[in-house]
Amino acid sequence: MTSASIGVHADRPAELDLVRRLKDPALLLLPALAFLAFIYLLPLIDLIRISVSGPSWSSYFARVFAIPLYWDSLVRTMQISVTVAGLCLLFGYPTALLIHRSRGIAQVLIATAIVLPYFIAILIRTYAWMVLLGRNGPVNKLLVSIGILSEPVQLLFNRGTVLLGMTAVLLPLMVLTIYSSVARLDQSLTRAALASGAGPIAAFWRVLLPLTLPGMGAGFLLVFVAAIGFFITPTLLGGPGDQMFAMHITQQADSVTSEGFLQALGVVLLTITLAVVAVAGRFLGFEFIWGGRKLTEAAPRATDRHAADVGRRSFGASLADLFGWPLLRLFGRLPASCGTWTVRLMGGLVIAILILPIIVVMIISFSSASYLTFPPPGFSLRWYEQFFSDSNWMRAFWTSLVVAAMSAGIAIVLGASAALGIVRSSIRGKSAIMLLLVSPIIVPPVVLGLSLYSLFLRFDLVGSTFGLAAAHAIGGLPIVVVILSASLQGVDTRLEQAAAVHGASSLTVFRLVTLPAIMPGLAAATFFAFLHSFDELVLTLFLSSAQLKTLPLMLWGDINYRLNPVLAVVSTLEVLLVIAGLVLARPVLATSRRAT
Predict the structure, then answer these.
(1) Which of 216, 319, 396, 520, CA to CA, is 20 to 30 A from 591?
(2) From residue 461, how far is each of 144, 340, 350, 453, 534 by CA, in Å?
(3) Which ranges does the record mark as transmembrane (predicted)?
C-alpha cells in the first residue's frame, strides 16, 4: 500500500465524521419557515377565512364590487400604478445607461444619488415633496419670479402630484433593476454591431434594447406591484379624487362593524397583487423578485449564456422589425451625440428629482423661521434644540431604536440560518423556498397589517414592543436572506471543507472560516434590516397603541395636522443615518459589483 493511499484512507474517517456532525444543512431553514408560518402565513389564511365567512362565501366580495366607491377606486389604483410604472421605465432606462456608461468618481456619485433616496423612508420623501410644492416652497417662488404665476398657488392635492411623488419614490427601484440587467450584458455585441456598420440608434434598437427587455419587464412589474399597495404618498399628496384602494382599507379599519367586509377589501388587493406576480413569474421566472437565477441550477456555461443571449436578441429584434423600422428611418441619421445627450439630460433630470427635495428639507431644518419657507430667512439650530428637548419626540426616537434593534436581531438570526440552509443544502425546490422567504416584500403592507391585527389581538401583542419588532422582522427577513445568500455564494467552500477535514467542528468552521468571509454582508444586512424597521409606518399604524409610538408614527401625525421645521429635523437625521449606513455597507456593495 502506497503512502498516498494511506493518506487517503486516513482522511476518510475525518470526512465521515464531518458528514455526521454537519448532518443536513436544510434543517437550518426550519426556524425561519416556522416563524413565517405563524406570523405571516397563518394571519393571511385567517384573513381569507374571515372574508368568506358571510352568508355565502362571496357576500362580502359582491359588496366590494357592487359599491361604485370601491370599484372606481380599484380601477383608479390600476391606472395610477400602470402610469407610474410607465413613467419609471421611461426615465429609469436612460438613467441606468448613464450609470453604466460613466466611469470613476462620476459613476460613484451618480450611483450614490440614485441609491441614497432608495433607503430613505417613503414618508420622508413624500414630506420633501410637500415642502417643495407648498405655497411657500421653492417651486412656487420660482414660477412667480420668472413670471409664469402672479402669486403662489396650490400645487398639491391633485393627480399630477400623486404621479410625481410615487414616480420619485419608485424610480430608484426601476433604475437599479435595469442597471443590473445592463451590467450583465456582453458589451462586445454592441461593439460588433457598430463595427459592422450599424448606426448608434440601430445598435441600440436591435442589440441593446432586446437584450435588456427582461430587466425592463422585471422593473416594470416590481414598480407596478409596489404601487398597487401605496398608501402614504397618495394620502399626503392627492385629493379626494385620487384615493387608492389601500386607503379605503385603513379607513374601514376604524369601523367596528366592517369585519368581514374589511377583510374582503384586503383579499381583493392581495389577490390582484399575487395574480400579477404569478403572471410575471410565468414569463420571467419568480427569480425577478430577488434579482437572482434559479437556485437549483448551476451557473450556465458560456455556450448556454450565448444561446440565451441570441434567443433574447432574436425575440427583441423581431419586435424591432415589427415596430422599429419607422423609428429607425426617422432617427437613424441622427449623430451619436444626440443619444448621448438624451441619456445625460434625462439622467440628470432624474437625479435632480431624487436629490433636490432632500436637500431642500435639510436646509429648512436649519431655518430660523417659525413656519416652512424656502429659502430660509436665516439659519438657526432652534428646531434641533426643540426636537432634542421635546420628551414626546425623544420617547418616540428611543422606542424606534429599541424596536428596530430587536427586529434586526430577529431578522439576522432567522435570516442567516435560512441563508445557510438554502445555499449549503442540496434540498429540492430551492427556488420555491426562496420565493416563500422573500414573498413578504410583495404583499401590500396594509394587507399584512390588517391580517396581523387579528392575530395580535388574540395573543395580546397589540401595543407591545416585542410584537411590533416581530412584525417588522417579517419585512427585514427577506432583506437578510437575499444579502447573505449572495455573500455565502461568494465563499470558497473548499476552505470550509479543508477546515472540517482537519478536525474542526461545524461551529468552529462557521466561526473561523465562514463568518469572517461574510462579515461585510452580515453588517450590511443588519443595517438594512434595522433601517427597514426604523422606517416602518404602515404596520405600526395597525399594531401600535397610545403608549407605544415610534418616530415614523409621530412624524405621520404631525404631517397630517401641522407642518413645521421640526419635521425637517427628523428627516435630516434620517438622511444622515442612511448615509452612515451606506458608508459601512460599501465593502459588500463593492463585492457585489465585482461579482456581477
Answers:
(1) 216
(2) 53, 56, 43, 9, 19
(3) 26-45, 77-96, 108-132, 162-182, 203-232, 261-284, 349-374, 397-423, 435-456, 468-488, 509-531, 563-585
Domain span(s) for CATH 1.10.3720.10 in the chain: 25-44+382-596, 58-295+338-364
123 contacts 555 by C-beta, under 8 angstroms: yes
| Rounded Cα distance, 549 and 394, in Å | 11
Alpha helices in 146-291 (DSSP H): 159-183, 188-195, 200-203, 209-211, 213-228, 232-237, 245-252, 261-284
Tell me if 175 sits within 8 A of 99, measured CB to CB.
yes
Q: Which residue has the cell 392581495?
A: 270
Does residue 299 surpass a pLDDT of 60?
A: no
pTM of the complete model: 0.85
What is the CATH T-level fold of the domain 25-44+382-596, as seen in this structure?
Answer: MetI-like fold (1.10.3720)
CA distance 388 to 177: 39
pLDDT of residue 181: 83
* C-alpha cell of residue 585: 455597507
Mean of per-residue pLDDT scores for the chain: 82
Task: State what percent of residues in the chain have pLDDT above 70.
Answer: 82
Residue 450 near residue 263, CB atoms below 8 Å: yes
Residues 6+ apart with CB under 8 A from 33: 418, 433, 436, 437
Tell whether domain 58-295+338-364 is in CATH 3.30.70.1350.
no
Residue 123 CB-density burial (10 A; 0-12 exposed, 13-18 middle, 19+ buried) = buried
In sequence order, the 6+-apart residues with CB closer than 8 A to the CB of 99 are 107, 110, 111, 114, 175, 179, 347
Per-residue model confidence as pLDDT tens digits over 110-158:
988 898 888 888 989 998 898 899 888 889 888 998 888 888 888 899 9
Q: Which residues of 226-250 are buried (b: 16+ CB within 10 A; e: fewer)?
A: bbbbbbbbbbbbbeeebbbbbbbbb
Amino acid identity of 584? L
Residue 123 CB-half CA count within 13 A: 23
Note the helical H segments in 490-585.
493-501, 506-509, 515-535, 538-543, 551-561, 565-584
pLDDT tens digits, 8-52: 444 444 444 444 444 578 889 999 999 999 999 999 999 999 999
190 pLDDT more than 70: no
